[in-house]
Amino acid sequence: MTPDQYCQEKTAASGSSFYYSFLFLPPDKRRAITALYAFCREVDDVVDECSDEQVARTTLNWWRTQVADIYGGKPQHPVAIALVPVVQQFNLAQEHLLEIIDGMEMDLSQTRYADFKSLQLYCYRVASVVGLLAAEIFGYTDRKTQKYAHDLGIAFQLTNIIRDVGEDARRNRIYLPMDEMQQFGVTAADILNAKETENFQKLMLFQIERAQRYYQQAFEHLPAADHKAQRAGLIMAAIYRATLDEVAASGCHVLKERVSLTPLRKLWLAWKTWIKN
Q: pTM of the full predicted structure?
């Protein structure tokens, strides 16, 4: 199996909505974004699948050496090997790959967030930075597109947080800002015990409204000149926003079930968005 094939299998196996946005890209950009996404999955899996915190930290440090080798050595991991020509062709910044690892590492020590400002750093590292790298791969002519990519990344991560409240709670993680939970009369125990109340629904609708504002803000920053180049990101946005709509329509029942779209619907949204843009 070649490094590119490994990345392809890693991405397809994840079942992520991102996979559908890659389908319409030209081969070189599809290979590049697939390698980047596989990297994100690898370092995320270290945190999610390793039960020993010290082992997880050691493994993330090993990934930092792999990143260094991508830019000036001989990396060993197939994903790192696949990224070597990608970072050269698309001029991807080494510090951005390292920031993604820093973001994943936050999950090892931080399971609560006092307010939205503290959550923003996490969202920036694990999602906005990915958005900035993706924007480089997709291509742009106007620097305002970087602001679009930043805000779209925040919107994606907020959507993930909203969708995965129950799943994260089963790992003893709560990403909803604690001051906002208090504001709506929702306790950590409510979330950890999957207690869906009217107050919880109001809290979630508040979170959904914020995520939608970030989507809108991102679209407002995207210059018309770069609209076509950034279509893959717009496909992701269409799928993620549809997921938000499903969460709201379900009555925000995210503590006991995980809302998701069917592969066929994702493909339809991807095709419709690609044609439209």
A: 0.93
